[in-house]
């Protein structure tokens, strides 16, 4: 049954999110994946542990501070497997959600009370699988950080529960020690010398074998299945240890599980930072799980807690040392954090956890973004939302206090009973040591009431070994060792400590009461949410649905606990149970339907932004306008931008995108105004300067364009959100400035701009949003060529080749530079051939090589290259004419005639082509066709003297032929 619940919940999780496999990259996916150099592989593996989640170095002042290298590593694996095909990214997300659902079910089995086990486990698993609040985490690829963190979070917690189980079992395991003490204690017994000597010999043999097994292949984790020793006529019974694991093996397992807990906690933290809260959660669970008061147990508990706390604090210190505290964020992302009023911040941030809890209760009012004024600030104590905050916190405080007080009272009662039991045991130990057990117990029996139960019997003269008080309740071995009439307070060898009695004792000390479960599940829900609550520190968002993925585990466990409690007495009230189950089924179906519908919102960006128009209009309209603009729906995009600015006029991004829209429509005056507003609201926006300069150049205002581009190149980017995009914009400004200087003939200024751009670009050839060091070096080489500084030009191109040795155009530029020196013609030809090898289908390379061969008077080879270039571009009339000219120079007039005809066919309105066709026809003796071509050339260009002369010659030849 348990396996079926786990399988059904995981299957439901997979089926509900199956429709996300056709979704694309939306919203933050573009920056986190499509433009992240750590994902694309432009950086080494170690860069994953040096950069933040978005690919920016952690040492950069503008770094986001989010450190999630394991999550980025999964993106990198996806890219290596399928490139930028979204389905593989979404498939892995769905798989993570399915495994998390299975782990939630396993956690519910470990933590729910016994009477809640069946219904509670089903409700927990199915509600977690179908909860609509998970859509952002599963359908959005960026949400994988929460999915992976949740998996490691639950694995860490489950491993710690296993550590506690092994620790408690090892605490009670003294089977071998008991045998050793018994045998040592009776070595001096005269009537058992031979038997015990044999027993001791066999015991020593077993100990030696055990040591050999530990040192051999079997290892310390191998256990004895039988601890059976023959002692004369008596055969000792089997030691009923659970697989008879040795104490050393149990100790080793304890440490392995504890280390595994810390390792999984570290992995969870490297996926997303809030997962570090699994460490305090494990500590709370350790305290709530068992209330045993004996000193050895407390010692082992505190040992585990101290080790776990030390590991958690070390992890926290290392995390803060690596990435530091969260960096600054825009005021629009979390407006309340920048509010000057303490009470406004207090009221609002007190309300936000309540709002998140309401989202878990009613997940049908969702948005991709809750920034700006999506949740208005609470500025007054009389705001109605303060009432909901007060009610929720009061209810939580009252319930928690009631549960804690009742549990403290229960612990005190257990403690009193424990000490009373110890006193009773000591009393009977002192009183019974001089009497025969059989005689004493018979006396007690005669004085006992007839209805006295078994538990009262066992409390009369309790045995330290098996806790039995009647001799006949001991095993034959125990009675034989103690001669049937000796008090067995110190020499009981009954195996009950590892049998059913010990299982009952273990259950007795393991609390699975609803009160304890409620406290633990509340901690499950609250602790992972604390880092995102703006309580410890301010974060860059108001509400984010994906951060509720881990807290929703506790919420679903609470649902399972409530469902189990309500159905505890379902047989007594069948009607009420049926109504409850029907309501539960309807709720589950509603959650499934809402999840499927919400998945469609995350299918593409237009649907996603339209779904939030009623929650966050400025953000949604601004992003929607960008999507519509890329789709060519200009009118709708402009209307969306204007609606966004109507709600919030100071949005620099929207002004910038509106300027791009106007620029593409060549409405340069309006574009210039939009870019200027974007710069006014965000002076560090380098892209706005670049496009402002472009619009000014298009409008003929070159001096202003120069100033704008120079300002863009010097824009301050200390706190910019995306350092790579900012640097790329600065490089674009410098490249545009260099192009402007080149257009005006200021070659030295252009060269200075290129050198400044090279200082911004990294030493490697890693691209910064399209720009590479190789590109700029190549363009700088062209400027050196214009300045006729051939040595510098060659050095620049060679530097570019060192960065990109597989770039054919760079080899072509180097060949042209080298060809300037006639003594290096062989070297130039080598570079030309290298370019052809790298780009055999590039007609430009063939053209340049053909012209080089022609300059060396290698006319036939030149014609071959130019003909190949013409064939590679069959619609280019210029290349067809060049091929014909080369063939004519190589004395291949018939082939030249065909290519001239091809040029005329491709461009019949070019007079030169008709004139050249007439000339080649003239040479080939086709005078009538030649005359026709000359006349057509004169129609297109009437005053061409060369064509007129050639036409007269053809007419003369034609008249001579007629005379003959």
Automatic annotation (TrEMBL):
<dbReference type="Pfam" id="PF08409">
    <property type="entry name" value="TMTC_DUF1736"/>
</dbReference>
<keyword id="KW-0808">Transferase</keyword>
<keyword id="KW-0812">Transmembrane</keyword>
<dbReference type="InterPro" id="IPR011990">
    <property type="entry name" value="TPR-like_helical_dom_sf"/>
</dbReference>
<feature type="transmembrane region" description="Helical">
    <location>
        <begin position="302"/>
        <end position="320"/>
    </location>
</feature>
<keyword id="KW-1133">Transmembrane helix</keyword>
<keyword id="KW-0472">Membrane</keyword>
<dbReference type="InterPro" id="IPR052384">
    <property type="entry name" value="TMTC_O-mannosyltransferase"/>
</dbReference>
<dbReference type="GO" id="GO:0004169">
    <property type="term" value="F:dolichyl-phosphate-mannose-protein mannosyltransferase activity"/>
</dbReference>
<dbReference type="InterPro" id="IPR013618">
    <property type="entry name" value="TMTC_DUF1736"/>
</dbReference>
<feature type="repeat" description="TPR">
    <location>
        <begin position="652"/>
        <end position="685"/>
    </location>
</feature>
<feature type="transmembrane region" description="Helical">
    <location>
        <begin position="340"/>
        <end position="362"/>
    </location>
</feature>
<feature type="transmembrane region" description="Helical">
    <location>
        <begin position="87"/>
        <end position="108"/>
    </location>
</feature>
<comment type="pathway">
    <text>Protein modification; protein glycosylation.</text>
</comment>
<comment type="function">
    <text>Transfers mannosyl residues to the hydroxyl group of serine or threonine residues.</text>
</comment>
<dbReference type="Pfam" id="PF13432">
    <property type="entry name" value="TPR_16"/>
</dbReference>
<feature type="transmembrane region" description="Helical">
    <location>
        <begin position="579"/>
        <end position="596"/>
    </location>
</feature>
<keyword id="KW-0802">TPR repeat</keyword>
<feature type="transmembrane region" description="Helical">
    <location>
        <begin position="547"/>
        <end position="567"/>
    </location>
</feature>
<feature type="repeat" description="TPR">
    <location>
        <begin position="618"/>
        <end position="651"/>
    </location>
</feature>
<dbReference type="GO" id="GO:0005789">
    <property type="term" value="C:endoplasmic reticulum membrane"/>
</dbReference>
<keyword id="KW-0677">Repeat</keyword>
<feature type="transmembrane region" description="Helical">
    <location>
        <begin position="516"/>
        <end position="541"/>
    </location>
</feature>
<protein>
    <recommendedName>
        <fullName>dolichyl-phosphate-mannose--protein mannosyltransferase</fullName>
        <ecNumber>2.4.1.109</ecNumber>
    </recommendedName>
</protein>
<feature type="domain" description="DUF1736">
    <location>
        <begin position="326"/>
        <end position="396"/>
    </location>
</feature>
<dbReference type="InterPro" id="IPR019734">
    <property type="entry name" value="TPR_rpt"/>
</dbReference>
<keyword id="KW-0256">Endoplasmic reticulum</keyword>
<dbReference type="Pfam" id="PF13176">
    <property type="entry name" value="TPR_7"/>
</dbReference>
<feature type="repeat" description="TPR">
    <location>
        <begin position="911"/>
        <end position="944"/>
    </location>
</feature>
<comment type="similarity">
    <text>Belongs to the TMTC family.</text>
</comment>
<feature type="transmembrane region" description="Helical">
    <location>
        <begin position="139"/>
        <end position="160"/>
    </location>
</feature>
<feature type="repeat" description="TPR">
    <location>
        <begin position="731"/>
        <end position="764"/>
    </location>
</feature>
């Amino acid at each position: 049954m348990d396996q079926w619940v786990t399988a059904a919940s995981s299957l439901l999780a997979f089926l509900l999110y199956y429709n996300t496999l056709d979704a694309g990259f939306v919203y933050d996916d573009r920056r986190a994946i499509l433009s992240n150099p750590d994902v694309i592989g432009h950086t080494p593996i170690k860069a994953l542990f040096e950069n933040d989640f978005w690919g920016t170095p952690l040492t950069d002042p503008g770094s986001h501070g989010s450190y999630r290298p394991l999550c980025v590593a999964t993106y990198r694996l996806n890219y290596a497997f399928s490139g930028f095909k979204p389905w593989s990214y979404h498939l892995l997300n769905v798989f993570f959600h399915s495994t998390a659902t299975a782990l939630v079910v396993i956690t519910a089995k470990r933590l729910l009370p016994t009477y809640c086990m069946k219904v509670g486990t089903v409700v927990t698993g199915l509600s977690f699988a179908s909860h609509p609040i998970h859509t952002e985490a599963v359908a959005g690829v960026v949400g994988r950080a929460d999915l992976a963190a949740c998996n490691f979070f639950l694995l860490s917690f489950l491993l710690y529960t296993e550590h506690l189980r092994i620790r408690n079992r090892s605490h009670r395991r003294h089977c071998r020690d008991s045998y050793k003490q018994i045998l040592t204690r009776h070595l001096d017994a005269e009537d058992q010398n031979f038997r015990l000597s044999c027993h001791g010999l066999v015991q020593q043999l077993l100990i030696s074998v055990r040591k050999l097994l530990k040192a051999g292949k079997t290892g310390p984790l191998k256990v004895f299945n039988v601890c059976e020793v023959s002692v004369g006529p008596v055969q000792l019974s089997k030691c009923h240890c659970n697989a008879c694991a040795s104490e050393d093996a149990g100790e080793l397992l304890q440490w392995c599980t504890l280390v595994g807990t810390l390792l999984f906690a570290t992995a969870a933290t490297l996926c997303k930072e809030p997962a570090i809260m699994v460490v305090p959660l494990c500590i709370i669970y350790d305290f709530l799980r068992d209330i045993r008061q004996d000193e050895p147990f407390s010692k082992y508990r505190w040992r585990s807690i101290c080790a776990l706390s030390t590991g958690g604090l070390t992890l926290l210190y290392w995390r803060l040392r690596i990435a530091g505290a969260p960096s600054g964020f825009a005021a629009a992302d979390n407006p309340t954090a920048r509010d000057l009023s303490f009470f406004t911040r207090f009221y609002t941030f007190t309300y936000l956890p309540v709002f998140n809890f309401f989202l878990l209760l009613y997940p049908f009012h969702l948005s991709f973004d809750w920034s700006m004024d999506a949740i208005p600030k609470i500025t007054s104590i009389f705001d109605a939302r303060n009432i909901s905050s007060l009610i929720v916190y009061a209810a939580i405080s009252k319930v928690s206090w009631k549960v804690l007080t009742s549990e403290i009272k229960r612990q005190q009662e257990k403690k009193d009973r424990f000490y009373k039991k110890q006193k009773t045991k000591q009393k009977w130990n002192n009183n019974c040591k001089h009497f025969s057990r059989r005689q004493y117990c018979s006396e007690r029996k005669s004085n006992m009431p007839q209805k006295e139960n078994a538990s009262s019997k066992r409390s009369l003269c309790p045995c330290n070994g098996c806790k039995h008080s009647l001799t006949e309740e001991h095993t034959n071995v125990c009675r034989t060792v103690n001669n049937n009439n000796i008090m067995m307070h110190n020499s009981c060898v009954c195996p009950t400590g590892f049998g059913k009695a010990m299982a009952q004792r273990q259950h007795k000390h393991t609390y699975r009461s609803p009160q304890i479960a409620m406290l633990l599940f509340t901690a499950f829900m609250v602790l992972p949410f604390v880092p995102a609550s703006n309580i410890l520190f301010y974060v860059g968002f108001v509400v984010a649905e994906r951060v509720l993925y881990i807290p929703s585990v506790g919420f679903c466990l609470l649902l399972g606990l409530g469902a189990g409690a309500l159905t505890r007495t379902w047989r007594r009230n069948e009607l009420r149970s049926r109504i409850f189950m029907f309501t539960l089924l309807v709720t589950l179906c509603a959650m499934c339907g809402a999840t499927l519908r919400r998945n469609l919102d995350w299918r593409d960006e237009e649907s996603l932004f339209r779904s939030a128009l009623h929650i966050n209009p400025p953000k949604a309209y601004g992003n929607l306008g960008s999507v519509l603009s890329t789709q060519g729906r200009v009118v709708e995009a402009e209307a969306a931008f204007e609606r966004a600015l109507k709600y919030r006029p100071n949005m620099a991004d929207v002004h910038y995108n509106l300027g791009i829209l106007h620029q593409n429509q060549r409405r340069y005056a309006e574009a210039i105004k939009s870019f200027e507003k974007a710069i006014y609201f965000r002076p560090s926006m380098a892209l706005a300067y670049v496009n402002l300069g472009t619009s000014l150049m298009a409008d003929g205002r070159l001096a202003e364009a120069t100033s704008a581009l120079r300002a863009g190149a010097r824009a301050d980017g200390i706190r910019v959100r995306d350092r790579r995009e900012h640097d790329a914009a600065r490089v674009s400004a410098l490249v545009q400035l260099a192009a402007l200087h080149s257009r005006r003939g200021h070659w030295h200024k252009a060269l200075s701009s290129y050198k400044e751009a090279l200082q911004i670009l990294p030493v490697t050839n890693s691209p910064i949003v399209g720009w590479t060091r190789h590109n700029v070096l190549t363009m700088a080489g062209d400027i050196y060529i214009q300045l006729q500084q051939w040595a510098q030009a060659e050095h620049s191109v060679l530097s570019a080749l060192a960065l990109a040795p597989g770039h054919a155009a760079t080899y072509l530029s180097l060949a042209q530079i080298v060809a300037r020196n006639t003594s290096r013609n062989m070297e130039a030809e080598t570079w030309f051939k290298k370019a052809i090898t790298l780009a055999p289908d590039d007609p430009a390379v063939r053209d340049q090589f053909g012209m080089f061969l022609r300059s060396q008077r290698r006319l036939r080879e030149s014609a071959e290259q130019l003909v190949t270039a013409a064939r590679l571009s069959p619609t280019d009339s210029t290349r067809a004419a060049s091929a014909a000219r080369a063939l004519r120079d190589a004395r291949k007039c018939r082939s030249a005639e065909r290519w001239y005809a091809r040029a005329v066919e491709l461009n019949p309105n070019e007079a030169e082509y008709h004139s050249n066709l007439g000339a080649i026809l003239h040479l080939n003796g086709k005078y009538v066709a030649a005359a026709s071509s000359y006349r057509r050339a004169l129609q297109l260009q009437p005053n061409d003297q060369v064509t007129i002369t050639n036409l007269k010659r053809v007419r003369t030849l034609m008249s001579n032929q007629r005379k003959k």
